[in-house]
Predict the 3D structure of the following.
Amino acid sequence: MTDTIFALSSGVPPSGVAVVRISGPSVRFVLETTIGRLPAPRRLELKTIGGENDPIDRGLVAFFPAPRSFTGEDVAEYHLHGGRAVVSAFLELLGGLPGLRLAEAGEFTRRAFENDRLDLTEAEGLADLIAAETDAQRRQALRLAGGAFRQKAEEWRQRLIELRAHVEADLDFSDEEDVPVDVSSGVVTAIGNLRAELERELVAGRRGERIRDGLDVVVLGQPNAGKSSLINALAERDVAIVTDIPGTTRDLLEVRLDLDGYAVTLVDTAGLREGGDVIEVEGMRRGRARAAMADIVLWLDESDATPPEEVTSLECQVIGIRTKADLAPEGELAQSVSIHDRASLDWLLRRLAEEASRQLGGEAPLVSRVRQRQCLEQAEAALREAERSDLPAEVMADQLRRAGDALGRLSGRIDVEDVLGSIFSTFCIGK
Ligand SMILES: Nc1nc2c(ncn2[C@@H]2O[C@H](COP(=O)(O)OP(=O)(O)OP(=O)(O)O)[C@@H](O)[C@H]2O)c(=O)[nH]1
Ligand SMILES: [Mg+2]
């Protein structure tokens, strides 16, 4: 018999309201013990909680009988006052009841998955929704959690099953080996169309992963160009040490920003120059390596916004900026900022936001995680093989089966044990 699990699902007390969630076979018993009887299903009822003589609190209680609940099991939700003593007294009471224990991180969602209330992409969407820091991340996660990817993958799987049935029919009606596929049936064209759709999602998914993980903006420049000062000013926090000694920064320093709804990581680096001690040389190496993987590089220079060859040859968008505009002679202010001029900082933020929107905007992609991308890539590779019309029907059918299996791994229908732990452990307790 499964345990009944419980957890505080809302934030750390004290808070106005605290929500405690319980799921499992003992939920009815818990309700009877704590409020006397079962509330009407799916309705909030105001109840005295924890016994008439010495109640713990008075609050709203809801009962969701299986299978129409988040986990698919019997679920109860208690809306208590969010005081520390209220919450701990109630959790203690629950922990003392037979068959009940505290939930592990993500355990409610895991049960929902195991009871087929959601598939793996929806569970990932939920995790992303809880972790979302910006608007674009929230929108993308909500779409995933709402089943957009699940439905698409389901549709692809159906089409694969039909195609396979077609190809296997050719096999069944023949006694020979190496039966060729009947190309006139349009099977190969249909496989090609499906493959093209997967490919489009994979291309769009590069944006999806960027929206989820954030754009990398690496700040490069010579020592003393004002990189650390600019990052502090943009983040409005004292993140990096600033001095007038060239070679102050050595380690990579990261700051997260929300640019018009897009998550961005600004990376401070060691100033680039010839020479320097071992520490500085290592700092420059790290800065260059990070810049090689960046989405945007900001090149800063006091007197000239034109980046050097080393920077322009990078594969990402490079923006040259002149710093310390307040020290420059009048009239030389194009593409320039000063940490003492708020308007120039706002201009740079707008410029970066435009670039982020150019790289990440457009229709919301379905793919937003490496795991999802890899499943689609495997499906796409199998379809690419299957698309060859010179294949014996048996081989083609086998490739179609492989593509279907890859989509099955995407939704978590097959081969999931190894990924489950890593996905659900990223949730917080109570989800
Ligand atoms: N007047 C003025 N001074 C600035 C501005 N930005 C930076 N500085 C000064 O320039 C000097 C160097 O600034 P940092 O931010 O440390 O420069 P950096 O590029 O990070 O230097 P390294 O870490 O050594 O590579 C400091 O003395 C800052 O106060 C600015 O907009 N105006
Ligand atoms: Mg610095």
Notes: The chain has three domains: 4-114, 126-210+367-424, 214-360.
